[in-house]
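ok so for the tutorial part 2 we go from a plain amino acid sequence to predicted structure tokens. step 1 is just haveing the sequence, like this:
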Amino acid sequence: MVIPPKDFRDPEYYEPKKVLAANGIQVATASTSKTATGAEGGVVNIDLLLKEVKSQDYDAVVFIGGPGSRAYYDDPKARQIAKDIISSGKVLGAICAAVGTIAKAGMLRGKKATCFSGIADIIKAGGAKYTGEGVTVDGKIVTADGPTSAKAFGEALVKALRNQ
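step 2 — the prediction. this is what the tokens look like for a chain of 164 residues:
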């Protein structure tokens, strides 16, 4: 899971992580700093820095939203991770405003996707077919609209990982 160093949406990180762990899926958390602080005050100790992420070491990469996730929109490493995951046939996930990162990486061209409604224009500009749903799955890409869909997002990620 890739989270911004500050202002990630706490439920968008904690809920899917809990669902993944409950299904026996090990989660590593990456960011650009050694700790990350959520918009609601959660503090996460980071397992590895974003620059250390090697896509081949993971079955999926999931970008977590919140106001801080915009920091990754133009981040070359974040974009490369998204591209590498898709080119390797692995699962790519993003929730809320973080869907903008994978859209700007070019990973949503011709794909159905959802996101925080405030960035719908960004994902449409990236070639996505915006659904407005809580969770949308298109192939190995799993997207969600925000915190109210965080648990369902986690469940969709588990299903996508089991179908790999």
